[in-house]
Amino acid sequence: MAVIYAYPTVVPELQDLLIGTEMAIQGGEDAPRTRTFTIQSIVDLAQTSAIIAPTLQQVTTAGSTTTIGITSITNANLAVPIKGVVNWEGTGDQNNVAVLGEVGDVNMSTIGIGVKGYSPLGVGVYGESYESNGVHGYSPFGVGVYGESYENVGVRGEAIFGTGVYGHSASGYGGHFYSENVEAIYCSGEMFATNDITTIGRFIKVGGSPTQSLMANGTTRNIPIFNNSTVPQAITAATVTYLTGSDISTANIKAGSVVNWDIAVLKTAAGVAAPIFTVTFGTTGTTADSTLLTFTGSAQTAVADSGLFSIKCIFKPIAPATSTLTGHYTLIHNAQIVGLSTLPVNFSFQTSPGFNSTLVDAVLGVTVNSGAAAAWTVNQVSVKLENQV
Q1: Local confidence pLDDT in tens for the 389 residues of the chain
Q2: What is the DSSP code (8-state) at residue 360?
Q3: How many angstroms separate the CA atoms of 167 and 223, rounded?
Q4: Over 16-68, what HEC string results?
Q5: What is the distance between the alpha carbons of residues 4 and 350, in angstroms, rounded to a whole number?
Q6: Beta-carbon-side half-sphere exposure of residue 99 (alpha carbons within 13 Å)
C-alpha cells in the first residue's frame, strides 16, 4: 500500500466515500468493524447533532409569528419593525422606551407615521409612564402617533407626573382628534398650549386669562370658561363697587358668544334707593373699565330681604370699534313686593354703543351701586362665557 500522501488530491463531493470504523453497540457482541461512509451522511449527522444558534433572519424567514413575548434586559435599539414588545425592562434611564417608532432622516425627507396602532375593540395605542410621557410621537411632516379603534380608544396615554399624550409636528398638527360617535377628546384635567388659541388644535393658554375652545372634525366644540367669588363681599352704600369674581376674559369671543352672571345678595332693613348694575369692559378688571350696559332696578324698601340678580349678555357682530353687546337683567327675591324691590320680578333690556371688542387682554365685569344707606352683602358671584371661536 502506498503512503497516503502519494494519492492525488481532489475536491470531495457529497457522494464520495470515506473509510471509518463502526463502533460496537454498547452491551452487544459485535466488535468494531471497518465501514465506508458518504460525505453527505457525515454532513447530515453534523447538522442534526450540533447546536447552532440561528440568525434573526433565519428565524423570521421560517415564520414571523410567535405566542411567546419578547423580553429584553438591555438598552438595545430595535432597528426593525415590530408588532409588540412584552415585558421590556429598561435600565432606569428616562429615555428607555418600550416601543420606539421614528420616521424621517436628518434631512426630513421621509413622510410617514412614527407609531400606528389599530384595534377593532380595544386600544389602538396605549402608553403609560410614571414621570415622563405616556405616548410621545414626532414626525417632521407626517403623523407622530396614529391610533385607531373601532369601538374603544384610538390613543390612550397615562402619566403620573409627565404628559399622557404628547404630540409635536414641525409643519403639521401636533394633535389631530376625530371620533364619529363619542367625544373626540377626553381629558380629566387640563390641556395646555404655549400660545393663545388662534388656530385649530390649540387648547388652553398658559398664564394670563384662560381660553378653552376645542375643534373636533372641523366643527367648533366649546368648553365654557368660568369665574366666581370665593368669599362674601360687603358693599359700601352709595359707592360703585366692582364685584369680585365677576371678570371674564373676552380673548375668544365671536358674534353669538354668551355671558351669564348670577349675583346672590343679602339686604338688611337699611336702604330704599334703586340699585344700579353696570356691565364693564376693559383691561383693568376694576371700576376704571368702560361701561357698556347700565341696569337700574326699582326702589327698595326698609325691609330685610335676599334675592338673585341675573344678567345675560350676547355679543352681536364683532368688529373693531363697531361691536355691540345686548343684555337683559332680572331679579327674583324672597320678600316679593318689599325689600330689594317693590316688584316680585324685575326685568330690563339694554343695548351697548359700539366698542372695540378686540382689545387685547380685556375682560367683562359687573359693578353695583346699592344706593344710599343700603347695607348689602354679595354672598356669591358666578359668571360663565360660552360659544367662543
Answers
A1: 667 778 888 888 989 988 888 887 665 567 788 889 898 988 888 777 766 677 777 777 887 777 666 655 554 554 444 545 555 555 555 555 666 666 655 554 556 666 777 676 666 777 776 666 677 776 666 667 777 766 666 777 776 666 677 666 665 556 655 555 555 555 444 444 433 333 333 343 333 333 333 443 334 445 688 999 999 999 999 999 999 999 999 988 889 999 999 999 999 999 999 999 999 999 999 999 999 999 999 999 999 999 999 999 999 988 777 899 999 999 999 998 999 999 999 999 999 999 999 898 999 999 999 999 999 999 999 999 998 87
A2: T
A3: 21
A4: CEEEEEECCCCCCCCCCEEEEEEHHHHHHHHHHHCCCCCCHHHHHHHCCCCCC
A5: 121
A6: 21
N-terminal to C-terminal alpha carbon distance within the chain: 105
Closest CA to 385 of 297, 256, 244, 284: 256
Grid cell locating 355: 366698542
| 3-state secondary structure at position 304 | coil
**Surface-to-core class of residue 68, CB atoms within 10 Å of its CB (0-12 exposed, 13-18 middle, 19+ buried):** exposed
d(CA 252, CA 361): 10
Cell triple for 333: 327675591
Gap between the Cα atoms of 330 and 308, Å rounded: 8
Burial of residue 120 (number of CB atoms within 10 Å: 0-12, 13-18, 19+): exposed
- Name the 3-class secondary structure at 5: helix
371 close to 300: Cβ distance less than 8 angstroms: yes
Nearest to 20 by CA among 5, 41, 1: 41
The region that residue 217 occupies, defined by phi over 0 for left and psi between -120 and 50 for alpha, beta otherwise, is left
Q: Map out the domains of the chain with their CATH numbers.
A: 113-223 (no CATH), 226-386 (2.60.120)
Please compute, for residue 163, the number of CA atoms within 13 A of its CA located in the half-sphere on the CB side: 11
**57 contacts: CB under 8 Å, gap ≥ 6:** none
Considering the entire predicted model, what is its pTM? 0.52
Q: Which three cell numbers stand for residue 107?
A: 434631512
